[in-house]
Automatic annotation (TrEMBL):
Domain Carbohydrate kinase FGGY N-terminal residue range list: 7-276
EC number: 2.7.1.16
Gene3D superfamilies per UniProt: 3.30.420.40
Enzyme class label: transferase
Gene Ontology biological process: L-arabinose catabolic process to D-xylulose 5-phosphate
Name of protein: Ribulokinase
Annotated ranges, domain Carbohydrate kinase FGGY C-terminal: 289-486
Organism of derivation: Saccharothrix variisporea
Family: Belongs to the ribulokinase family.
Top-rank taxon: Bacteria
Amino acid sequence: MTNDPLVVGVDFGTLSGRAVVVRVRDGAELGSAVHDYAHGVLERALPGGRPLPPDWALQVPSDYVDVLRHAVPKALEAAGVDAADVIGIGTDFTACTMVPTTADGTPLNELPQFADHPHAYVKLWKHHAAQPQADRINDLAEQRKEPWLPRYGGLISSEWEFAKGLQLLEEAPEVYAAMEHWVEAADWIVWQLTGTYVRNECTAGYKGIRQDGAYPSPEFLKGLNPDFERFVEDKLDHPLGALGDRAGSLTAEAAAWTGLREGIAVAVGNVDAHVTAPAARAVEPGVMVAIMGTSTCHVMNGAELRNVPGMCGVVDGGIVPGLYGYEAGQSGVGDIFGWFVQHGVPPEYHERARERGIGVHELLTELAAAQEIGEHGLIALDWHSGNRSVLVDHELSGVIVGQTLATRAEDTYRALLEATAYGTRMIIDTFTDAGVPVTELVIAGGLVKNELLMQIYADVTDLPLSVIDSEQGPALGSAMHAAVAAGAYPDIVAAAAAMGKVRRGVYQPIPGNVEAYERLFVEYQELHDYFGRGANEVMHRLKVLRRKAVEGKNAR
């Protein structure tokens, strides 16, 4: 080994996995590679063709192993380094993404008897078909005044471990009976690397309703379904590993996949958003990090414990030791922009973009940037994938108000950009009102490249926007945790000081824009509360009608 030790970080996203090779002493990113999942997201049908109901989102776990086989060796090659210098590997995942497995970690979809069963596959974070189970969890928890409920803003999401597990039990009891472990994908991939199953504290706290050392009681679970009483004991509970701890050593098999040395440190698994905070040096209270991609996750540290309505959770040490880690989020952001470009933009725009050698997103952004604030006459709600925070309701759906025959694609596109900024503003205001003030917003993720979007966020939130100085924030954060696991730094705060990267105050709110957006935000709030807080349940009724129609069609 040379005097310059290296670490590898691997970020498992929604559509692909990204690996980056990082120098331990200063966080320099020496090489990276991306590998797309062969099966992508299964939303309409299984690989064999079996149709899926609405609101399902599944994945194939072997796609994750392929990232280790392809992206890690390519990243090492791109870096031009000797794999012998790598002292550790760390990983992160989208959450809550769940894998039903046998006792030895084999995913159930890999068993012949379950190869064509939807419930045997990975349930991706944006699998929202467990909303009825989430509603029952919330209702019973409220009735029983469960002490853990306020730690999650008063509502448990359909995206999380318990709702998805209850759906599995009730819709596929034979799959549930065969399942020995209900595993977060963040832990499953570490299991593949080390041969050892270690459950990480982060997802256990945020997605697994573990607070003050305990999960929901058997009595509570029995109240949901008598057969769910032993869910924690039989399917979920497992020894925990702290963030930055060494989960184990790289096995010979995993070393062959990755091209790394057998025996190097493998860090405890983590969540993409949470590892990004130290990568952006956001380890102090008041600094909120928005990791913007297909969805947005908002994380920040606080010195005191507060109950924030609609937050995804607060966990002691959930991001860095000694502080309370808070999480909120938006279920759809980049997904919404992508949906509109794919399904709502006339062919002439695509042709114009091709002629100029740019993407449709770039063309629409350019056209939208030429508008005055409010010129398009639109207000949109950013709920095309439901609402994660602060309403925690995935039965909600998108709305665009103000369209006329004069409305053009760039008008709608800008309105959708603004809607996601308003959604973030709702989250920030809710945190501030609850006694967790937000003083700075740090942006990470692929959408940071859109300068118009960044300025809109600064103007709508009236906050300075800093930008992570890395195109691979989660992967960098995972690499930093690998450095801690390998003993190169005593904790993640020290690693952040040496390896983290951020450009402060890149976007500043423009006073005139702030004033203009304040008027529009009032309109957004009215729509938000009208459709989201019970005044009009039309979105819920439409979801019910849609499910019945699709079920009837699939049954024919």
